[in-house]
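Request: Give me one sample?
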Amino acid sequence: MRPITEIIVHCTATRADWWASKPTSAKVAEIRRWHVQDRGWRDIGYHYLIDRDGTVATGRPLAQVGAHTQGHNTGTIGISLFGGHGSSENDAFEEHFTPEQDAALRKLIAGLKSEFGITKVSGHNQYAAKACPGFNVPRWLERKTAARSTVAQSKTVQAGAAGLLATVTTGATALGSLDRTAQIIVATAVVIAGAAFLWVIRDRVKKWAAGVK
């Protein structure tokens, strides 16, 4: 087995719905065709590819030097994510890839690091003036868990807003039946309760983003 010291992450630069109805094996075969027939390489350039649903497929054998990053193929493993069309080097991972791909990539990287003692993980855009893989790999690696969906996060915010609105409405209704002094006391309590509620939601969202359940 050749010495391996680094993993380099790529993307196929295909649209999110590219060949969506076809199996991962067919997609890998098409990428291999691009590399072999169109570019004249002897095999697909990547060692692993990760489909939109998180399926991990093998490409070129690990024992062979890949063809994925000019000047940095020796001693490296190339992993490519399906997707990334129209991306830029500083986009967020979830703008172009799925939570399933996030989880699969993290698991694959962890396994390869453990097996080969790899300490460095980079993105193609760190070695070339390219957007690939469509996000900043070091920054992505700092996140502890797979990306959450935007829809789920939106629902959390909506629920928090609904809870705050209910608190304010209840307080406003109570104010109308009280004297001036009592109104001031209730209003103060409502403001404090609302602030506390917002603080809890803010803290929960921060923990969620950091991967703390």
About this structure: The chain has two domains: 6-142, 150-210. Residues 146-152, 205-213 have pLDDT under 50 and may be disordered. The radius of gyration is 24 Å.
